[in-house]
């Protein structure tokens, strides 16, 4: 069977970075083709070339259904049947589902106006194909992230796509939503659509892929049917070194000393899009890693935002036995808090600034002498973190917008850890991070706790929470629904507390 798409000898050079080096890739319709690789391996760059966002260096070529093509731009890619769904969803919250699906190609009636009846009917037909029981006139802003993703899939189907690329599609989904999505992926493949599935969640790759291609340092190092791949082999191919253990033996460094005490924390005027948080009370001990688990929308991030002063609250927060009124993040930072936020682009980084500038934002005063910044010391410290966290960047002066997603995440972790907060809140710290880097982040959190830092970890990754937390608090609909010690907690009881 002629492959749907073939990429030959694809290279891509950015200033100072060879992102891709002679990559070949063959994709068939009706197959789920997983692409795996460490952060910065070149997966997204390859997809950008496939969808016409970037041009490859001379010497590479692409064939679609046996014909050589130069994919000029994303509109051209779409006309060839190639669509991409990015992790950061491209839907407009204040438009309806139908308006999102047919954005910029709405059916027009005789009077030259949008034919809403026709558009809603066409949207309903696509939604029905996906077994989605949603009214096409509903506002997308009222949907869950999983449902928004389905709207993107519906849009891709409405373009008559022959190949749909999904870049870390489950990264922001709940367990249930991820299961629904994977079922959908299998169904689309069964209908003859080719799927490229990029994921750092290896279990998903084994669950749905027919073929897996492994990329490392801009090259394809392996490509084979999934039946011929094992988890250990996949990891070895990806990281090219032995990973001692994903989650090492758990050792608690928690003391009896209460550092942070939260009493009856509730949200002051919840907004339309936020989960309501009511009456949350807990203590965080010195040297403790406290895990927060809950389904998406359970209120985990909202609680952390209240403690960090970026969201108004009622209730009482004490640090070292002293009540503090955290009116804004600067108060929290002065009290010794740090917050690795969940949303890396909107909240975590200044994308147009360099790695060094982002890194030192949290602790610039450390490098100041009189009124001047000691650039040499700042750069040296930044280089130490680039080294220790394995941040893939050609130099500290690279703009963070040019880093791969996982490496951007590592910059956020670095900037807060370098400040040495007494209490570090990390919200989804390993989202989009590859298996090797994940083990390194866990080891780093353990080391910080051993040195006396108190850490709150919010994660939707249940194995991660179970492995690294000394204690776990489970939330459901904005309230605490369970609490477990490391020894007591397991997949079943934590999940049961989260779902009720
Ligand atoms: N516009 C750009 N300018 C300079 N370098 C870039 C640019 N885009 C990507 N790169 C670099 O190319 C390399 C490959 O990045 P890419 O985003 O393709 O990796 P990835 O495999 O998708 O990683 P992740 O799993 O973290 O998303 C990285 O070193 C990245 O910093």
Automatic annotation (TrEMBL):
Alphabetized UniProt keyword annotations: ATP-binding, Cell membrane, Membrane, Nucleotide-binding, Repeat, Sugar transport, Translocase, Transport
Pfam family, one: ABC_tran
Residues annotated as domain ABC transporter: 5-242, 262-500
Molecular functions (GO terms): ATP binding; ATP hydrolysis activity
PROSITE patterns: ABC_TRANSPORTER_1, ABC_TRANSPORTER_2
Topology with respect to the bilayer: Peripheral membrane protein
GO CC annotations on file: plasma membrane
Annotated compartments: Cell membrane
Family that this chain belongs to: Belongs to the ABC transporter superfamily.
Protein name: ABC transporter domain-containing protein
Native source organism of the sequence: Ciceribacter selenitireducens ATCC BAA-1503
């Amino acid at each position: 069977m002629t492959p749907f798409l073939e990429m030959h000898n694809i290279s891509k050079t950015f200033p100072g970075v060879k992102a891709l080096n002679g990559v070949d890739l063959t994709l068939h319709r009706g197959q789920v083709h997983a692409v795996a690789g460490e952060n910065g391996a070149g997966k997204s760059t390859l997809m950008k070339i496939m969808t016409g966002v970037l041009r490859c260096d001379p010497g590479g070529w692409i064939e679609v259904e046996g014909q050589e093509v130069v994919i000029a731009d994303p509109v051209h890619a779409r006309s060839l049947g190639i669509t991409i769904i990015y992790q950061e969803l491209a839907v407009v919250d204040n438009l309806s589902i139908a308006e999102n699906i047919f954005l910029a190609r709405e059916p027009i009636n005789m009077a030259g106006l949008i034919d809403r009846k026709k558009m809603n009917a066409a949207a309903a037909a696509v939604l029905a194909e996906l077994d989605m029981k949603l009214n096409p006139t509903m506002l997308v802003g009222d949907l869950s992230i999983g449902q928004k993703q389905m709207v993107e899939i519906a849009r891709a189907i409405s373009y008559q796509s022959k190949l749909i690329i999904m870049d870390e599609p489950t990264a922001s989904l709940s367990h249930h939503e991820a299961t629904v999505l994977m079922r959908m992926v299998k169904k689309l493949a069964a209908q003859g659509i080719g799927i490229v599935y990029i994921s750092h969640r290896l279990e998903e790759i084994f669950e749905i892929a027919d073929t897996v291609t492994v990329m490392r340092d801009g090259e394809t190092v392996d490509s084979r049917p999934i039946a011929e791949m094992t988890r250990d082999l996949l990891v070895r191919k990806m990281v090219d070194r032995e990973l001692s253990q994903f989650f090492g033996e758990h050792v608690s460094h928690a003391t009896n000393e209460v550092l942070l005490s939260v009493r009856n924390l509730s949200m002051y005027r919840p907004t339309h899009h936020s989960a309501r948080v009511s009456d949350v009370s807990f203590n965080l001990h010195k040297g403790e890693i406290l895990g927060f688990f809950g389904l998406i929308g359970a209120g985990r991030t909202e609680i952390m935002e209240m403690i960090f002063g970026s969201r108004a609250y009622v209730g009482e927060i004490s640090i070292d036995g002293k009540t503090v009124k955290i009116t804004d993040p600067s108060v929290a930072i002065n009290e010794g808090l740090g917050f690795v936020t969940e949303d890396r682009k909107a909240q975590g980084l200044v994308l147009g600034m360099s790695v060094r500038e982002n890194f030192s934002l949290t602790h610039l005063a450390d490098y100041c002498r009189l009124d001047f910044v000691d650039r040499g010391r700042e750069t040296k410290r930044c280089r130490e973190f680039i080294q220790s966290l394995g941040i893939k960047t050609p130099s500290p002066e690279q703009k963070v917008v040019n880093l791969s997603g996982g490496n951007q995440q590592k910059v956020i972790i670095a900037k807060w850890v370098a400040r040495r907060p007494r209490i570090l809140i990390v919200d989804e710290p390993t989202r989009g991070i590859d298996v090797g880097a994940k083990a390194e982040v866990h080891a780093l959190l353990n080391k910080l706790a051993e040195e006396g830092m108190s850490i709150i970890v919010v994660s939707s990754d249940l194995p991660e929470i179970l492995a690294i937390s000394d204690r776990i608090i489970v939330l459901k609909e904005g309230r605490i629904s369970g609490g477990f010690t490391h020894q007591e907690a397991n997949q079943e009881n934590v999940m049961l507390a989260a779902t009720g």
